[in-house]
Every structure is written in C-alpha cells, then in structure tokens.
C-alpha cells in the first residue's frame, strides 16, 4: 500500500525542531568542539578497539563524537530534519531508545569486526584506528523513513524514500574507494542500517496493538535490493530470520494466530495502517505550519 504524498515536499518543513533533537544536536556540536580543542580526548571518547577494554564507555560515547567539521554538520542537519519527522510519530521515549540501541549495537558490531579483521590480517591498523560519529544512527533513521513513508518522493529528485537506505550504502561504498577518510565510516553505515532494520522489524513496541515489529512484506529485507534480485535474496533472508527469531506462529483460516499470538498477515495490515498514520501526522504538521506562516504574513501586512 502506497503512502499518501505529503504536500510541499520534505523541505517545506524547515522550522520547529523538537527539543530532544536540539539537545542531541548540542551534544554532537559540543563533542566536536571538545575533541578539536583537546585532541587527546579522542583516545577516551572514540572507539579504538585496542582500548575498548577497559574503556567500555567508548561503545556509547563514540556515536556522539564527530571528529571532522563535515561530519558534525551533516550529522546535526540530519538529526534535526529527520528527527522532526520521526519523533512525533514514534514518541520522544521510543525515539531516544532507538538512538541508544542502534548506536550501542552498531559500535559493538564495529568493535567485533575490527578485532576479527586484526586476527585475519594481523594489521594493527584495525586495532588503533579511532572510529566515531553519528552516521550509524543516521543510517538507522533512513530505515525509519523507509518504513513510514516509503513512496514519498525526495525534494528535487525522483527517488522514493524507500530507497534512501540503499542509496546511502551505495554512496558510502563508492566513496570508500576514493576518499580514504570515508573508509572508517563505511562499517558504521552498514551496521547502522542493519541494526535499524532489525530493531524496527522485530523489536519496536507498538503500544496501540501491544505487538512488536513490522513483519509486512513491504518492509522485508529484500526490499533494500532491486526487484530483480529479490527472488534470490528472500530464501536466504528467511533462513536467517528463522535462526534469529524462530518460526512464526501458524494462522487459522480467518487470519489470526493459533494460541493467541500475533499473526504475520494481521501485523502486515497494522503496518500499512501505521504508515498511513505516519503520513497523516506529517500532513497535519505541514498544514499547521502553513497556517502559522499565513497568520504571520497577514499580521505583518496589517502592521
């Protein structure tokens, strides 16, 4: 089911950032200033696999420390604009929980990958390269947009929102061949996308239905790939899904699970309704923003 088109496009939402996003933006900017003024703090705040034990807090702090100006600018802008779309729909508590889980598990996966690469290649670069940044969470945000408004087209581009995570991964892989600094961001983006999808697919609570996740076909793992590749990806994804989550409960002829558990088909309907509610909430926000601007314009003309 396609989601409604939002009037005015994404860029019409340009003001009214949430307090939580503003606070997190201050943290990102403050972290960058700290490591810029005091470079030695990178060793304590960034993820350096050889020092993660005993500095285990790096698994959390690394996500909020941007070492470059470009990084802090992109992360701050992405947080403010994407957060404004997601937080009103998810709620502040769920939004913050998503950030924490994706950030922590992304750092943990990067740590395990770096240690594994060291033992495979014996190159100490993997142990002492400082890795940090908000890119993993931003990649997870893009998955959230894919879930809520998959058919919304981007401003000035004829690309639907459902392709944002895949596009971000392709750009990151492409840049890693030509920009040396981007190589350290690539694992973070990859794991951020995967963890974001896993969280939204299996773990996110839905208070209105007391269910978890989004098992709809429109949000399956294969939807990250072109349609021609999906028949080959679906069987592999199914194997991993059963390994991680077990076999889904069987349903009866009416579409409900035997034993009272939630049914995949009924959850798919709920997921579609959820996307409609998300798009509707954004439409209401855009309409309220438009009315506010009209009121301000009329007031200025009267003066």
UniProtKB/TrEMBL annotation:
InterPro entries: Rhomboid-like_sf, TMEM115/Pdh1/Rbl19
Chief location of this protein within or outside the cell: membrane
Annotated localization: Membrane
Entry's Gene Ontology cellular component terms: Golgi apparatus; membrane
Organism: Erythranthe guttata
Membrane-protein topology: Multi-pass membrane protein
Residues that span the membrane, as ranges: 20-48, 68-86, 98-120, 126-149, 185-203
Amino acid composition bias (Basic and acidic residues), ranges on this chain: 270-294
Keyword tRNA-binding among record annotations: no
Gene Ontology biological process terms, A to Z: retrograde vesicle-mediated transport, Golgi to endoplasmic reticulum
Membrane is among the record's keywords: yes
Disordered: annotated span: 255-303
UniProt keywords, alphabetically: Membrane, Transmembrane, Transmembrane helix
Protein name: Peptidase S54 rhomboid domain-containing protein
């Amino acid at each position: 089911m396609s989601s409604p088109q939002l009037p005015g496009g994404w860029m019409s939402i340009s003001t009214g950032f949430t307090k939580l996003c503003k606070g997190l933006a201050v943290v990102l900017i403050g972290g960058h200033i700290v490591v810029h003024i005091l470079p030695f703090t990178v060793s304590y705040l960034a993820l350096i696999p050889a020092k993660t034990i005993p500095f285990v807090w790096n698994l959390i702090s690394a996500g909020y420390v941007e070492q470059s100006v470009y990084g802090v600018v992109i992360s701050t802008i992405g947080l403010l604009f994407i957060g404004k779309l997601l937080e009103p729909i998810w709620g502040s508590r769920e939004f913050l929980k998503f950030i924490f889980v994706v950030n922590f598990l992304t750092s943990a996966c990067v740590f395990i990958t770096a240690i594994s690469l060291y033992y495979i290649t014996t190159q100490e670069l993997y142990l002492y390269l400082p890795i940090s940044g908000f890119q993993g969470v931003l990649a997870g945000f893009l998955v959230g947009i894919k879930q809520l408004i998959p058919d919304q087209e981007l401003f000035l581009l004829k690309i639907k929102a459902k392709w944002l995570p895949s596009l971000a991964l392709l750009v990151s892989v492409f840049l890693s061949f030509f920009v040396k600094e981007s190589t350290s961001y690539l694992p973070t983006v990859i794991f951020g996308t995967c963890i974001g999808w896993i969280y939204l697919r299996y773990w996110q609570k839905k208070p209105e239905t007391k269910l978890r996740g989004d098992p709809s076909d429109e949000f399956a793992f294969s939807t990250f790939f072109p349609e021609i590749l999906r028949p080959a990806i679906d069987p592999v994804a199914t194997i991993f899904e059963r390994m991680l989550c077990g076999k889904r409960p069987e349903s009866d002829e009416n579409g409900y699970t035997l034993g009272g558990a939630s049914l995949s088909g009924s959850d798919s309907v709920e997921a579609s309704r959820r996307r409609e509610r998300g798009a509707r909430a954004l439409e209401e926000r855009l309409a309220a923003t438009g009315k506010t601007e009209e009121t301000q314009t009329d007031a200025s003309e009267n003066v």
